[in-house]
Amino acid sequence: MSSAPILALENLTMRFGGIVAVNALSFSAQRKQITALIGPNGAGKTTVFNCITGFYKPTSGVIRLTHDDGTQYEMQKLKDFNISKQAKVARTFQNIRLFPGMTALENLMVAQHNALMRASGLTLLGLLGVPSWRTAEQSAIDNAVFWLKRVGLLDRADDAAGNLAYGDQRRLEIARAMCTGPALLCLDEPAAGLNARESAALSELLLSIRSDHGTSILLIEHDMSVVMEISDRIVVMDYGVKIAEGTPRDIRDDPKVIAAYLGTDEEEAAAVLEAEA
Amino acid sequence: MDYFAQQLINGLVLGSIYGLIAIGYTMVYGIVGMINFAHGDVFMIGGFIALISFLVLVSVGLTAVPVILLIVLLVSMAITALYGWTIERIAYRPLRHSFRLAPMLSAIGMSFVLTNFSQVSQGARVKPVPPIVTGGYTLHEGESGFVVQLSNIQIVVVITTIVLLGLFTWLVSRTRLGRDMRACEQDQTMAALLGVDVDRTISMTFVIGAALAAVAGMMYLLYYGLVDFFMGFVAGIKAFTAAVLGGIGSLPGAMLGGLAIGLIETFWSAYFSVEYKDVAAFSILIVVLIFMPTGLLGRPEVEKV
User: Fold this and answer.
1) In chain A, which residue's Cα lies nearest the Cα of B305?
2) Are residues A91 and B193, on separate chains, in Cβ contact within 8 Å?
3) Cβ–Cβ contact A70 with B under 8 A
4) What are B246-302's pLDDT values in tens digits?
5) Rounded Cα distance, A185 and A81, in Å
6) Which CATH code, of 3.30.160.70, 3.40.50.880, 3.40.190.10, 3.40.50.300, is assigned to A1-88+182-249?
7) How far is B127 from chain A (nearest CA, A)?
8) Is residue B150 within 8 Å of B7, Cβ to Cβ?
9) ipTM strictly over 0.85?
10) Minimal Cα–Cα distance from B109 to chain A, Å?
């Protein structure tokens, strides 16, 4: 097992014309941990995600991913489908991006494209119905069923994904991301729009993904109850730079973070903290 | 009544051919959102390849008709599929992320290229072939002496179409490739993030569409006994109309639209005038689109935010 962090950003900068959305950002996400990326709106969190998953080509900097066996990938150089295929990074978006016209089960089957692609020998063996392909198809179905059960949607397996309730669609997205067999799971505001009970279930699901499946998680989230409960480490961004990094306890008491969220300056925040203590 | 039955048979056969071509239009539209105007010419190419491979087989002395038909079918599907793949690779893929009209213009250009390439390499004259599949059944003989006939070639066309449609429906709904195609149709970015090679999936769509067009080309050759370099234009426009009529993007819609256009054309020619059959087909298209803008089986387009 490699001792390097699963994901390391080194001096990542992303410029859109004159606007510097991310400015020389460096942080790392540890293996088999949940790392949260937080910060006020417009801090550049989603831009970081988009750089990691290849939507934006960073102006400069390196995003290095290291697998358990020590294989390294520089994410900014990978072609779109190789992000999942080679680097094994899965992500979700702020808005739901399921395939609405396909069933819940089919959504999870698409995510196992690569395993099936290998087994189907570039489609030909699959069309001929070679046994190894049937086994692969069956194990893909088993895996999909496992995740449907895990997120409590087994009875909705054959319903179109677009017809599920909002909270169900959110969980199905996470299940779909997990079906790709990711080493790193990037979640962009998974708790957005969930009620308190659904948020608690989400926290439980993410903790189990980390401990039972050994998947590292990088998460953007505004729901502090979720962030504080499940994160091993928190990175705080504001105006494209990192302003703090540490355990949930460190972050909670950091005057810089409070100042950034309240939009006040640091001394005022420190004074509030002291008064509370 | 006999006359009606005969026209129904003729219309269904013509409609099958249109439907096979229309599927290529609708599939490509569904996945990349462009109208592949060169698709009619791919159909024409399919007809020519069927003709050439038929002549080659006969000249090497093969005489068993079913064997000839099968080989011609496979050869023309394979080579035309290669054409489809190449067209997408050189004319559309480089323009994939360009402005919306660019691939369409490129498609029109590709259509000219194929038409003129065939004219130059094969000559401008109509190429006839002797009837390959002959014979048929007399279904009913009326008192007035009118005979309802079902020829063997009509049976071949309809059965081939049904078998191919069955295979194709299975491919799209049950296989990995079909799931990938549907996923790319709904959200290419997300499909890529899940590890689907979008470029390859789009290539496969063109390959399948071209193979079906080749079958249509071969059926046309067998049914009408001739091909020429310009036949892709009118057939392409008709099949495109069929795809729009059925609801573009919908696969059963394409087949239904093809049958509808085939029937309208045949009945109009039979009961009114042959000269105005195209006018009739396109007028019905206009009427349907006024009252059902998304076609017979199309889903309303939901604007993405």
Assistant:
1) A95
2) yes
3) no
4) 988 888 899 999 999 999 999 999 998 888 888 888 888 888 888 888 888 876 655
5) 15
6) 3.40.50.300
7) 36
8) no
9) no
10) 30
